[in-house]
Amino acid sequence: MATTSKKGGDSGSPDAAPSTSDGLALTEDVTFTVSLPVVPHEAPEDEAAVAIDEVAITPVTLTADGPTTTTITLVAEEVAVVPEEPVEEEPVIPALPEPDQVYTRRGRARGAVSPTPEPAAMLTAERLVTPPKRGRKPAPEGFLQALLYRATFGLVNVGDSLAARQRKALDARIGKHFEGGTRFVAVVTRKGGVGKTTISTLLGMAMADVREDRVIAIDANPDRGTLAERVAKQTRATVRDVVTRAPSIQAFSEFQTLISRDQTRLDVLASDSDPLVSEAFDENGYNVVADVAERFYSVAITDCGTGIVHSVMRATLQRADSIVVVSGGSVDEARLASETLTWLESNGYADLVQNAVVALNTATQGTNLVKLEEIEAHFQSRVRDIVRIPYDPSLATGSLIRYADLKPITRDAARELAALVVDGLPEQRVI
Question: Per the database record, which ranges form the CobQ/CobB/MinD/ParA nucleotide binding domain (predicted)?
Fold first, then answer.
């Protein structure tokens, strides 16, 4: 409800009564009464959803000292939401239908036709395939063993002789399988003329004659090596040609034109015959040749020169997994071989010395005048093992070496050297 008041009269005479145009007198106060409908305020739903009803807010009064601060604390209630656990349904496995008829071949002859049609399940391997007969053991090796085997028409097989078993065991050691790259073997010495190239050739032939993979002998002697003269030459190419053509060598057939192959399947890569050119074969050149050899060979034998401080020797020793130190049978030859071990130990190759094998070449002069057992005892205290290489007329000429023409005792020594070297090579290597 609203009320409005208004005073009448002339402003010039305050005491005169107000009047209308028709001369009627008006009262001094007039009151109007208006009744307004009371409509309550209803908040919209979006405002009601965010309204804070339970917290009272005190209005802020600005004073001369500045506005006052009122802290409002809002309390949030945490509502834990528990996820519903999935209900695992057990798989329904339908039962197999019961067969109306049981199929069997019991009581039927082979090849007999069933009176009722057979299902495909009756075609089993036991029915169709005849089990292989157990094969007989191969004929034994050895005179008496073979004689007894033939006399009994193969019914009695006592196995190989002791010599045959030892030979096969040695073949198994030489033919050990390698994984993870080429194994490098360095043949070193500080003295010339002790048969280092001959030992390198014998070692390579003994390995290549047994192993099923490829074996190569690399002549890395910067002083005009003669390794290629120990086998029948089939090419005039040298290590220099490999360095030059390395970027274009993509397959073994291309590399094969640069090497000579022996009857034992030993591949030989020659050095340059010109001393001035061979001297230029340095560390970088050897690394190029070794990288190419790693693509095609499992074992690489490096015939090193006498210059142990030459850069080629440094690259050879860095790649070597094992070394063979060649010693003659004289006092100075044995002493220089021992000094070679000392130099290797002093220059960070002590692990190669511990794994080294010494080849004692007894074909050199003075062998009959010294005590070879004392030389062997000395090296046994420093290296892993030692092998004595006997004198052989086929090796004394210093020319071609035909593995089949060697004396049996010489071949046995070469095979023993190869087995010892392979024993020291890692079977697996991480690339």
Answer: 185-295
The rounded Cα 425 to chain-centroid distance in angstroms is 17
The residue range of the domain holding 168 is 138-174
Query: How big is the chain, counted in residues?
Result: 431
Q: Which of 304, 363, 356, 367 is nearest to 332 (CA)?
A: 367
Which stretches of the chain score pLDDT less than 50? Answer: 1-14, 24, 99-100
- What number of other Cβ atoms are within 10 A of residue 86's Cβ? 6
Residues 6+ apart with CB under 8 A from 336: 189, 190, 191, 327
Segment 300-359, tens digit of pLDDT:
999 987 777 677 889 999 999 999 999 988 888 999 999 999 999 999 999 999 999 999
What integer pLDDT is reported at residue 11 of this predicted model?
46
Q: What is the pLDDT of residue 312?
A: 86
The domain tally of the chain equals 2
User: What distance in Å separates the CA atoms of residue 203 and residue 186, rounded to the nearest whole number?
Assistant: 11
Is the Cα torsion angle 317, 321, 326, 332 positive or negative in sign? Answer: positive
Residue 170 burial by Cβ neighbours in a 10 Å radius (0-12, 13-18, 19+): middle
Q: SS3 helix, strand, coil % of the chain, rounded to 5?
A: 35, 15, 50
Does residue 246 share a domain with residue 144? no
- Could you write out the three-class secondary structure of 164-190? HHHHHHHHHHHCCCCECCCEEEEEECC
pLDDT of residue 27: 52
Residue where a domain stops, chosen among 114, 147, 174: 174
H-run or E-run covering 276: helix 275-279
Provide the 3-class DSSP secondary structure of residue 389. strand
